[in-house]
Design a protein that fits this description.
The protein is α+β, with helices and mostly antiparallel strands. It has a single domain (2-129), classed as 2-Layer Sandwich (Heat Shock Protein 90), CATH 3.30.565. 39% of the residues lie in helices and 30% in strands. A 5-stranded antiparallel beta sheet has the order 1-2-3-5-4. Strand 2 and strand 3 (63-70) form a beta hairpin. It is globular. The protein starts with a strand and ends with a helix. The relative contact order is 0.18.
Length: 133
């Protein structure tokens, strides 16, 4: 597990996530997916809420979670698909890449937890053999 409090930028969050991911023997695709989600969640916290106030990456048997807190109580919303418009794809991408998302509102803001399942973290040939993505 890797945890940080205080202002967290995308570079610091990615470095922390990479440290956890490097202990897991994951395929490159899974590492890339996790790092995209880290960048999107921390970047969105900066863009829409003044920055991430806490960040955690936790690896457990069968799952990996990325948790980002910020000071806004505004819940992210999926934007209408509009490829001609710049931006608005991040939350959709986070939804597509993760197995589960939870948003917990609390005094002082919100915490978003993105969960990657074992199925998403396994090498591609194992997933295909199991009939998955």
């Amino acid at each position: 597990m890797s945890t940080a409090d205080g202002p967290i930028d995308c570079a610091r969050a990615r470095t922390m996530a990479e440290a956890v991911l490097s202990t897991m023997s994951l395929p490159a695709r899974a590492v890339d997916d996790v790092l995209v989600v880290v960048s999107e969640l921390v970047g969105n916290a900066r863009r829409h809420a003044g920055g991430a106030t806490a960040f955690t990456v936790t690896a457990r048997t069968g799952t990996l979670t990325v948790t980002v807190s910020d000071t806004s109580s505004r819940v992210p919303e999926l934007q209408a698909w509009a490829p001609e418009r710049a931006g608005g794809f991040g939350w959709r991408l986070v939804n597509d890449l993760t197995d589960a998302l939870t948003i917990r509102l609390h005094p002082g803001g919100k915490t978003i937890t993105a969960t990657f399942s074992d199925k998403q973290l396994r090498p591609e040939q194992e997933v295909k053999a199991a009939g998955g993505r």
